[in-house]
Structures are given as C-alpha cells and as structure tokens.
Amino acid sequence: MEFPSKLIENAVGELAKLPGIGRKTALRLTLHLLKAETEATSSLAEALAKMRFEITYCQTCHNISDTEECSICANKLRDHSMVCVVSDIRDVIAIENTGQYKGVYHVLGGVISPIEGIGPSDLHIDTLLTRIPESEIKEIILAISPTMEGDTTAFFLSRKLREFPDVHISTIARGIPMGGELEYADEITLGRSIVERTRQAK
Amino acid sequence: MEFPSKLIENAVGELAKLPGIGRKTALRLTLHLLKAETEATSSLAEALAKMRFEITYCQTCHNISDTEECSICANKLRDHSMVCVVSDIRDVIAIENTGQYKGVYHVLGGVISPIEGIGPSDLHIDTLLTRIPESEIKEIILAISPTMEGDTTAFFLSRKLREFPDVHISTIARGIPMGGELEYADEITLGRSIVERTRQAK
Ligand SMILES: [Zn+2]
Ligand SMILES: [Zn+2]
C-alpha cells in the first residue's frame, strides 16, 4: 500500500505495529483521526504518552498504580492475609471485575518461559517471599493461567512456598478450560474458580 | 471495567473512542505499550500528532499531501486530461494500488448526505468545475461508491457537468457489488471497473 504522504505513512506504520492492527485497519484509524477534530488526536497522543511515561507500580504488589501504594493494598477493608498471585495486571482487572475476591494481590509480571528467556529471577517472586512473613499472610491463591508456562510457574512457586508451612496454598478451581487464558474467561466462571479454589496438598 | 490507575483509564478511554476498538482491545493495546520500550509509545504518539497537525491537502485535487501539490498532480507522466472523482482519500489509495489508472484525481471529501447534513456546498465540487476549463480536462470518471448517498452525489455531479458538453463523463463499471464500499473491493475487481468504465449517455 502506497501513501501520498509521509505523515500518513508514519502514522499508519506506527499503528500497524500494535498487536492485532493490520495496515488496512491502521489506515482506517488514521483517516478517522484526520476527519475528526484535531483535539481527538492530541487527547489520544497525550493520554498514551502520559500513561507510558508517568505510570508507576505499587511497591507492595507490583500492580499498576498512580501512587506508591495501589488502591487495593491501601484498602483496609480488604483481607490482607490472603494474597492472590497473578502473572499480569490484566488478571487483576479480570478478577476485580468478578467482584468475588476481597483479598489482595501479587503481580509476578509474567510467567517462567525458557523460550522467551524469562527465568524466575525476572519475576517478582523475591518480594512475594519477603512479603509473607512481614504481612502475616495466611493464604496464597495461585491464579495463574493453566498454560504450560503458567503451570511451570505455579509448580516453581509451590516448591518455594514450602518454606512457609503455615501458609495455605490454593489454586483457582479448574473452571477455567485447560490451556485457556485467564483474562478470556467469562466473569461467572472466573468468579466461581476463585470461590471454589482448591487447596493444594503439601 | 475498573482500572487501578487513572493513567491507564485515560489511555484505554481514548483508544476505545477509535472506530472498531472496544474497551477490551483498548486495554490490550495499552498493556502492550506498557510492556514495550517507552520509545514505542513516544513514536506512536508523535506520529499521530504530527500527522494530524502538519497534514496539508493538495490545492488542485484535495488529496492528502506533504506539499502544496500532491505527488500525483505533480507527476508529468500522468494523463492530466483525465480526472477520477472520488469521495475519499481512501479511494485514491485503493485505485492507486490497482496500478490500472494513469490519470489524476479529484477528492470530493465526502458524499451528499441529507441525514448527516452534508450538502453539495460541503464538498469540493466548485473547485472541480473551475478546474475543468483551466486544465483542459477531456474525461471525468465518477468513481463513487454505489451506495444511496454515492448515487445521489454522482447524479448531482452528472447534472452539473452538463455545462461542459465536450467533456466525456464515465462511471466505473459495475464490477463493484451494489451497495458495496469501494475500498473493500479486491484489486482486480476495482482495477477492471476502472478499465471497463462505462461512458454516460448525455
Ligand atoms: Zn498494591
Ligand atoms: Zn493533487
């Protein structure tokens, strides 16, 4: 596809770098912005840049946050003795949307993936281990997508967590189809899988 | 969907304003940018803002252009006696991609739509009419999508063009399915519809 303008070409090229956006869709979006008020484009560009450059992470759970402590960790009404371990911020949003969970979170920032060169030290596992005694945590729910990498990560964590024999370890109930991504589950299934979580044998 | 950060919420909200982008897709794009290098976001934001604020239009044909005259109008090898009238820049790109057309263009900037309050005076029709005698145009191809609004626009133009009895008026061949949008046509169909254009009876 050739464009009559380098400006258009650059905009289309940048949009088409986003996952799931092809060049035809990118052109459609570009021409939409071109027809709309200039304000629409400046708001979008500013929101993206601001998000990327000003974002911070909660020092306790590594959730995204506009402050040092995220709104979930800061909420005294939540059960701080129960920590739900997830790989990704998306999973926090998905579980929060079920309205079924009242504990707190720990965001690993990924899963162990030898292919992508992601090892345990690349994930927020150390902060989880130091957090357990400091915060008197009684239960840890491993809510990691049951993919191959997810299962590897959960297995690795289970073994690490053996140093805390008083902490109950559970995994979300297998309402989630095997090989399925957590974030695609409907809210009812995901909600149930939290409520009916299965406690792990030690 | 609730977000743990206003910055994320704004970015998702702005992306979700784009046509065909839902909130779930917007969140996916936002988290993709968050994981990627900061440079990816700044390049995207800058490309969009630059495109929107620096874009200019060809003074002859109203095609998008980085200069006063677009690369098609400036090309001496093209047949300047043949003008293809289209509603949109997308149509110029689509026809150029067929490689079948060697004339020049005139971009109306829309179609007559009483529902959306777009009348003939909102389109670049006047500049087309002044262009015909000035540029010694011999043929005008009406390449407007055969939708109801497109047909209305083509009919309006046909009548206006009666003041130039020496100019041949043709419409693109009905290879395009009725009610179909020009830009969705495959290149072969669109290319043929240009080559086999039907000359209008006066
Ligand atoms: Zn937190
Ligand atoms: Zn031009």
TrEMBL record, chains A, B:
Keyword DNA repair: yes
Membrane spanning residue stretches: none
Domain of life: Bacteria
Sample GO molecular function, one term: DNA binding
GO biological process entries: DNA recombination; DNA repair
CDD domains from the UniProt entry: TOPRIM_recR
UniProt KW keywords: DNA damage, DNA recombination, DNA repair, Metal-binding, Zinc, Zinc-finger
Keyword Zinc-finger: yes
Zinc finger C4-type: from-to: 58-73
Domain Toprim: 81-177
One Pfam family this sequence matches: RecR_C
InterPro entries referenced in this protein's UniProt entry, alphabetically: DNA_Rcmb_RecR (IPR000093), Rcmb_RecR (IPR023627), Rcmb_RecR_Znf (IPR015967), TOPRIM_dom (IPR006171), TOPRIM_RecR (IPR034137)
Family: Belongs to the RecR family.
Name of this chain's protein: Recombination protein RecR
Gene that this sequence comes from: recR
